[in-house]
Amino acid sequence: MPLIQPALNATPFAKNGLRNAIPTNPDPDAEAAASMELGFPELTMKKITLGGIPPSGRDMNGILNFLSQHQVWLNGGGQYKFNADLANAVGGYAKGAVIASNDGMRLYVCKIDGNLNDPNSDLSGWALFSTDQLENILNSLQDQITIEKADRIYSDNLLNDKIDLEITTRQDQIASVQQSISDEAATRSNADTNLQQAIDNESNTRSNADYNLQQNIYGEENARISADNNLQSQINGKLGLSGGTITGNLTVNNVLTAASMYLGNYSAAQNGWTALPNGLIFQWGRADDDGNMKYFPIEFPNNAFSLVAQQITGEGTSKVYVEIVSNSEFKIYEGSSATPNTSFYWMAIGN
Predict the structure, then answer these.
(1) CA distances, 6 to each of 3, 9, 75, 280 (Å)
(2) How far apart are CA 283 and CA 296, in angstroms?
(3) Cβ atoms of residues 331 and 323 within 8 Å
(4) Cα 53 from Cα 48, distance rounded (Å)
(5) Under a CB-based contact definition with an 8 Å cutoff, are residues 105 and 136 in contact?
(6) Angstrom distance (rounded) from CA 294 to CA 326
(7) By the 8 A CB rule, do 98 and 109 touch?
(8) CB of 125 within 8 A of CB of 82?
(9) Helix or strand or coil: residue 39?
(10) Which range among 50-59, 127-136, 202-211, 307-316 shows the weakest confidence by mean pLDDT?
């Protein structure tokens, strides 16, 4: 038979009546008092003639009031929120448990047994069950699907028209190419005959040119020997390929290039450094906001002048704080303490 919703209740039992607050553990000074641990003690279940004590009506009101408060909460559509003390006491939330977010706008369903994670800050073991944003997302998605469907139908029609036109154009082009091939064959036959005649004429011409060229080579060889001697004389006054010493000022009137020109030692890594000839050292890197001490890629030999950082991940909105602890150590964090899932780029200058 179908379930019928019982009458809803907005008033907890004994709201204004006399009642006791029921403790978790038994009160040793009240041997007949009820507790969450034992309920009504055995003494209240004995006959009065055998030394028993009747249960307290205030205890009964207190128990029913405690229980009916939850019934009123659920009747009013209430949804329980995450409670760390309760989670630890029951060994974690069970798989399938549903709780509300702190702002009451989302519901989370537990995906594992013994879950102690707070879904408001850590969704491990939890999944969104229902949100007010979900309906908006689905509605927006449906609108996008409708628009995309219309756009695709329009695009498909245009594409089909283009395909039909392309087929007709290609057929005409194939016929034209076939005619061009026939014409080209006849033209190439005549061209081959003319080419062979030109090759024969070129052979005779090149034979004469080769003799003249050989004579020119002999003259060029003597001229180059003389030029090389002059060039060697000029080279002797230049710097050698392996280096040399320049005294005085050097002026470059055009672009100065070199296969490699290192201005100092360096490490070109994500967490790296470079040392300049003037003594300055630049260091850079990436770090997580985990509250731990950070270390420069190398220790500054003398001083660490400056340290700056920029937040690149995380949802925090507080300022980024940095602290140079020593020439080899520093701290960096967002806000007043470590923030999970937050990372920074940093750069330091020293000597």
Answers:
(1) 9, 9, 10, 80
(2) 7
(3) yes
(4) 6
(5) no
(6) 11
(7) yes
(8) no
(9) strand
(10) 127-136
Nearest-angstrom CA–CA distance, 337 and 319: 11
Q: Name the token pair of 121.
A: 């800050």
Length of the chain: 351
| Residue 180: both structure tokens together | 């061009």
Beta bridge partners of 311: 344
Would the pLDDT of 223 be above 50? yes
Give the Cα separation of 346 and 334 in Å (integer).
13
Can you list the alpha helix ranges (DSSP code H) found in 236-265?
none
pLDDT at 67 over 80: yes
H-state helical runs in the chain: 57-75, 84-89, 132-235
CB contact set of 88 (below 8 Å; sequence gap of 6+): 116
CA distance 251 to 256: 10
Q: Which residue has the tokens 């995380």?
A: 314
Write down the number of H helices and E strands in the chain: 3, 11
Q: What are the residues whose beta carbons fall under 8 Å from the beta carbon of 288, sequence distance 6 or more?
A: 342, 343, 344
What is the value of pTM for the model shown? 0.37
* Domain residue ranges in the chain: 269-350
The class of domain 269-350 in CATH terms is mainly beta
Confidence bin at 249 (pLDDT 50/70/90):
low
Question: How far is residue 3's CA from residue 311's CA, in Å, rounded to a whole number?
Answer: 56
The pLDDT tens digits for 258-301 are 444 445 689 999 999 999 989 999 999 999 988 899 999 999 99
**Percent of the chain beyond pLDDT 70?**
87
In angstroms, rounded to a whole number, what is the distance separating the alpha carbons of residues 324 and 304? 7
* pLDDT above 70 (res 10): yes
Q: What is the pLDDT at residue 37?
A: 92
Helix (H, G, I), strand (E, B) or coil at 318: coil
Both tokens assigned to 232: 């060697």
- Which of 120-129, 246-255, 273-282 shows the lowest mean pLDDT across its residues? 246-255
Spell 183-199 as b/e; 16+ CB within 10 A means b: eeeeeeeeeeeeeeeee
Please, are residues 334 and 289 in contact by the beta-carbon 8 Å criterion? yes
136 C-beta neighbours (distance < 10 Å), count: 10
